[in-house]
Structures are given as structure tokens and as C-alpha cells.
Input
Amino acid sequence: MAITATVTRGFTFATGVDVTASALNQLGEPTVSIGEGNVDITGGTISGLSSPIAIADGGTGSTSAGAARTALGLGTLGTQASNAIAVTGGTISGTIMTLKSYDVAGVPSASPAGQMIYVTDGNSGAATVAVSDGSAWKVVALGATIST
Output
């Protein structure tokens, strides 16, 4: 026995079937039409939508993960792991960057060129910033302490 019901606010639909495991099988799969513009869903799952949920309604307005990332303005950063990102355009600003710290004995390969690291003992035993030229790490002189 399949059940079709039209539901409006304040209406409780009763099936007349006792709620037991065997009796629930008699209900079949219900079809429900909701005659309201606004519906609150507080549990269960949503499937079989005829159109995506709009961004204004808490959705992405999209039917695929890639389209959802685009709609939300995530770009390629939205698919990168937090421990391995590649910024290939734009500007990093308004934040303090912390360079990875090494001692001289543990510095990584200087290839490719353009990498920056902090070396705790890389300038005759003193701390320094180093930049790779592709084959070696070059000391960036730290100079005097800043003052106001």
C-alpha cells in the first residue's frame, strides 16, 4: 500500500498502521507534496531534488563539486590539502609569514631557485634568512634590530 499525502502547516498525517517493524513494511514508500514556500528540514536526507539549492538558501546553486567551488569563489585552493598548497597568482598580504626553520646540517635541497628558509645557525653560527639560487643557499643579511 503506497501512501500519497499533501501536507500543510499544522497537519499531522496518520496512517492507521501500528508502528512495529512488520507493520512499517505495509506503508511502502511515501510521496509527500508540501504546499509551502518555506520548509524547515531538521533531519534525514534530501535526495531527488529537481534543482540545486540556491546559495541564498544555504546551498551552492550547483550540481557538481567543481561548480560548487566556483560558485563559492574557492578556485583551485579549495581542492588543495592544507599542508601542501601552491599559490600561483595574486598576492599574500595582511598576514605574517613564518618561514620553515632549519639548522645548517638539515637544510633541504636548494633546487628549485627562489625558495626562502630561516636558518638558525646559517650566518657564521648566527640566525639568518636564506634564499636558494637553484644550486646553493644564499645568506640574506639581517642587519640591525628594527626600532621606532
Notes: The first strand starts at residue 4 and ends at 7.
